Write the structure tokens for this entry.
Amino acid sequence: MTAALAVQTFAAALATALATGLGGVPFFLVRRLEERWVGLAWAFSGGVMLSATVFNLIVPAVERAGYSPVAAGIAAGAAFYWAAHRWLSHSHPQFFHLQGASAVRAVLLIGTMFAHSVAEGVALGVGWGSGEVGLAILLSIAIALHNVPEGVAVSLPLRGEGFSAWACVGWSIFTSLPQPVLAVPAALLVASFRPLVPLGFGFASGAMGFLVFGEMVPEGIERAGRLLSAAAVGAGFVGLMLLQNVLQ
């Protein structure tokens, strides 16, 4: 039974990770973005991530553990990525063809979504390990569906920075690889992993909030202007919120 549970959990989590790559598929049709559209891409993706932070991370975490542990997780996530930003900024990084501030933004984008998937992978494993197969299947479908717009949120700014469509698909899937890796041990050791879910959600939300307000929105304002960027953030936030309503 343990082996069957591990196989089922891994297969479901792998499917959710691959679904993230679907977010990069539309960019096979988009070859190049003008400067203003690159800014709007960063701002829109920031709105999507902000919506995911609120509705997929903070709200479920507070419902599970209350405000204080989640607030501590948010503070830890923001502090960690603040430190990572400072370290990257002083190390003059290069990320493929990107250098300097552009490379820092890309690394933080991918790293933040990777951390977000760590928490989701644990939650997915806990769901499968609970023994309620129907609920676990619904949870897997829900995570897979909302991974698609998260793949768009990763791909859109990367495409704007000159990455190929295949690279957008690949990096989107990469950000979700923690889901199949961590889902299996979480399913097999539910009691040990269950308390980590709200803390992980809080940490991921702090990191995503830092990325949105520290990098993505300012980049949108610089390239596309304040009003257009605000509209793009709002469109991304409301768009994913409405999608959440459809999924529910």
